Amino acid sequence: MMDLLDGLGGYVLPFLVILTVLVFVHEFGHYAVARWNKVRVEVFSIGFGPELFGFTDRAGTRWKFSMIPLGGYVRMFGDRNVASLPDGTERDYTEAERAVAFAHKRLGQRTAVVAAGPIANFIFAAVLFAALYVFVGQPFTSPEVGEVQPGSAAADAGLQAGDVIAEINGSRIDRFEDIRQVVQLGLGEPLSIVVLRDGSQLTLSAVPDVIERQDSLGNSYKIGMLGVQSIGLGYEKRDPASALWYGTEAVWTQVTVAFKAIGQMIGGARDASEIGGPLRIAWLSGEMAQGGFIVALNFMAILSVHLGLINLFPVPLLDGGHLLFYAAEALRGKPLGERAQEYGFRIGLALVLLLFVFATWNDLVQLRVVQFVQELVT
Question: What is the pTM of this model?
Fold first, then answer.
């Protein structure tokens, strides 16, 4: 019983808190821009399924928590369901109802409402990163090489202790963290490294080694390894303006890293088993929470970026699918037919469910639940 309570307190509760905050931010983006464009919002739900508790505000919006806490939705006037399909009763609307119905807003207004959810996640992440940089400090390590490991790719390339790495593959290096980001995600890609040594500028070539590491659960993953160590980690506090700039930069870095990782999975350089679902996110939430409040906030910011990014994928049912339909509407000069949209959302639902099942299976394997069940059976 105590182990169960520890599991709930250490993993499930942090996961639910982090997910609830991020879902609220995402849905509030939709809600705020919808209200700005005078759309009547009927339901603002955290979670799906039967309502647990809630209240109705003076504008007629039902704010509620629902039983299944894996997401949320905003249902606007005239929507048939949470996918924002029209309810098919447009011809019966009064003039006053048409004025507050989402489906009767201009294309630009509908696009803004849909895009506002992911954008809210990006803005929230940037502000969260910025707050950490103001009050705690931004992780900063000089790009000076403190030590070169013998026999490593760095040693083979001619890197020496004291070298300051200024550029890699044309990208400016300001911090040692930038080096780590490029090398670890590159998975053995050749590097052209510009270093400053004794007042001179040199260009060296290196091919990082690809090694396998294990997380605390024993799961393997691949990273690139150059073989250099920094001169020491520090934190540099930023003023609010520069913190917001660096926070926005951190969001962009997370987006580019995600796209590069997806490209590597498609190309076969990275294993698709690294795709995680709700179980792994719950485990990571617990791990980050045990690392302390600051670590958990940093994880929340990273997860917010990925939530916004996933919702922009051009898959019907997600925000990106709506935006894809609106792009088609802009090109055609009229909306796609209701049947085409209906089939699109069905396909999207199937794709989302397949991805959910695949990611959950990965979680069960990586978290060794499958192995545990097999051992029980055999």
Answer: 0.77
Six token digits for residue 161? 């202790």
Q: Which residue has the tokens 């609010």?
A: 240
In a shared domain, residues 231 and 157? yes
Q: What share of residues in the chain are helix, strand, coil (percent, to 5)?
A: 55, 20, 25
Domain end point (choices 220, 236, 252): 236
Report yes or no on 363 lying in a domain: yes
Residues 110 and 197 in one domain: no
**Per-residue pLDDT tens over the stretch 339-364:** 777 777 777 667 766 766 656 655 55
210 vs 225: CA distance, rounded Å: 6
As a whole number of angstroms, the longest Cα–Cα distance in the chain is 79
**330 CA to centre of own chain:** 28
- Establish whether 147 is a catalytic residue: no
Tell me: do 126 and 177 sit in the same domain.
Answer: no
Please pick, among 27, 97, 189, 329, the residue that the annotation labels catalytic: 27
Query: What residues make up the domain containing 143?
Result: 138-236
CATH of the domain at 151: 2.30.42.10
The total domain count for the chain is 2
d(CA 339, CA 172): 50
Q: Map tokens 């992911």 to a residue.
A: 118
Average pLDDT, the chain: 80
